[in-house]
UniProtKB/TrEMBL annotation:
PANTHER family with a match to the protein in the record: AMIDOHYDROLASE-RELATED DOMAIN-CONTAINING PROTEIN, AMINOHYDROLASE SSNA-RELATED
InterPro entries: Amidohydro-rel (IPR006680), Metal-dep_hydrolase_composite (IPR011059), Metal_Hydrolase (IPR032466), MTA/SAH_deaminase (IPR050287)
Protein name: Amidohydrolase
Annotated ranges, domain Amidohydrolase-related: 64-399
Keyword Nuclease: no
One Gene Ontology MF term: metal ion binding
């Protein structure tokens, strides 16, 4: 069924064009593709019968494209708040890794369900994830209805699923083949980082990604420690190292890129690497550096936003992440013009860099006091809105959230998920 959103106060499209007092029509083609039309009197223009339409009231609302969370570890919703205000290495070694080792596939499934619900509630319609038991993340994303680039994690010392590296790599290839033809799922090869994956591991991951034409997703230059360690051990910085082994390329999605030089930024631009900025997590974990936004933009690097995992953010709210991003770069550069509204909004809508066309629509409720008055709607979106302002979410022509209520998941299902999550986390050690 086609969807008509009537009498919107405002709308912003993917090119950041602004519309006032407008209707939006989502029409499904013969092959299932969604076409978006904007204008007035669209029922008459397309000679549509009201009985053949799903009509949504747009009064006191603003329509934006779907938001994209391009680097996260969704099942870490289960670890939200378990370890805050700690040095990164202590955080990992004493709290995160010991508790993660207790997780089963079923646990990850419920953590993924919780995370997908959180993202949908916050207007996120596509995501890029890296976590073990990835088939459970796929299952959760498909159940909720949002689009996921789901990475199969590869790390030299193994994962809770596969302790042997050879088995891990074979399983990775099988995972890629299994989900290669999915409509809303993009399988991804996800070597963890240059300091946890050997040259041979990266090369094999690259070969799998090339054979099946799927992305590589990795952490890159997140902390000063990892950069110094690599310089001391092999005489190269992480970006230089990945270039030397042939991993840099347009299929690479690199998360963080906090500790990079101007020359490395030029390499990222030259190889058309897609960089995901995670400012909230970087600041909370005190990574120290700041991703060089100005230089990245100058070199034409494809930029997007990610929340990182809920254990280090501690939410999956991309609307909130936009404001964090803008303020961080203004403060860092002593320049209020840096991290402007259009720049960070473009980053938040960039689902194309993880393989998804963005034909989704999110409605923001403008009736709350913190979103009035409206002198500049894009300013309100970036600096004033948060995920709780999302009212309606339409993904690939399906209404998944309406009037702040989930369409696929009822109250009983929500209670079942919350109860299961509460049981799972009882196995954790919290100090």
């Amino acid at each position: 069924m086609d969807i008509l959103i009537k009498d919107l106060d405002y709308a912003v499209d993917l090119n950041l064009n602004l519309y006032r007092d407008i209707d939006i029509l989502l029409r499904r083609g013969d092959k299932g593709e969604i076409t978006i039309h904007r204008g007035r009197n669209l029922m008459e223009k397309f000679n549509l019968d009201r009985r053949d339409l799903k009509i949504i009231e747009g009064n006191r609302r603003c329509a934006i494209p779907g938001l994209s969370n391009n680097h996260t570890h969704i099942p870490m919703t289960l670890l939200r708040g378990i370890a805050d205000d700690m040095i990164l290495q202590d955080w990992l070694e004493s709290r995160i890794w010991p508790n993660e080792s207790k997780l089963t596939g079923e646990d990850v499934y419920y953590g993924a369900l919780l995370g997908c619900l959180e993202m949908l509630r916050f207007g996120v319609t596509s995501f890029n994830d890296m976590y073990f038991f990835p088939e459970e993340i796929v299952k959760g994303a498909k159940e909720i209805g949002i689009k996921g680039a789901v990475g199969f994690p590869v790390i030299d010392f193994g994962t809770p699923q596969y302790k042997d590296l050879d088995k891990l790599l074979r399983a990775c290839e099988e995972f890629i083949k299994r989900y290669l033809r999915e409509e809303k799922i993009r399988p991804v090869v996800a070597p963890h980082a240059p300091y946890t994956c050997s040259r041979d591991t990266y090369v094999q991951c690259k070969e799998i990604s090339q054979e099946y034409n799927v992305p590589l997703h990795t952490h890159l230059s997140e902390t000063r420690y990892e950069v110094v360690e690599m310089e001391n051990k092999i005489g190269r910085r992480p970006v230089e190292y990945l270039e030397s082994i042939g991993v840099l390329g347009e299929n690479l999605i690199a998360a963080h890129c906090v500790w990079v030089t101007k020359e490395e930024v030029k390499k990222l631009g030259r190889y058309r690497v897609k960089v995901v900025h995670c400012p909230g997590s970087n600041m909370k974990l005190a990574s120290g550096g700041v991703m060089p936004l100005v230089e990245m933009l100058k070199e034409g690097v494809s930029l997007s936003l990610g929340t990182d995992g809920p254990a280090s953010n501690n939410n999956l709210d991309i609307l909130e992440e936009m404001k964090i991003c803008a303020l961080l770069h203004k403060a860092h550069r002593w320049d209020p013009r840096v991290g402007d509204v259009d720049t960070v909004l473009s980053m938040a809508l960039n689902s194309k860099s993880i393989g998804f066309e963005n034909r989704d629509v999110v409605l923001l409720d403008l009736k709350s006091p913190h979103l009035r008055p409206v002198h500049n709607i894009k300013s309100n979106i970036v600096y004033s809105a948060n995920g709780n302002d999302v009212d309606t979410v339409i993904v690939d022509g399906e209404v998944l959230l309406e009037n702040k209520r989930f369409s696929r998941i009822g109250d009983r299902d929500l209670e079942r998920i919350y109860t299961k999550v509460d049981r799972v986390v009882k196995k954790f050690e919290v100090q």
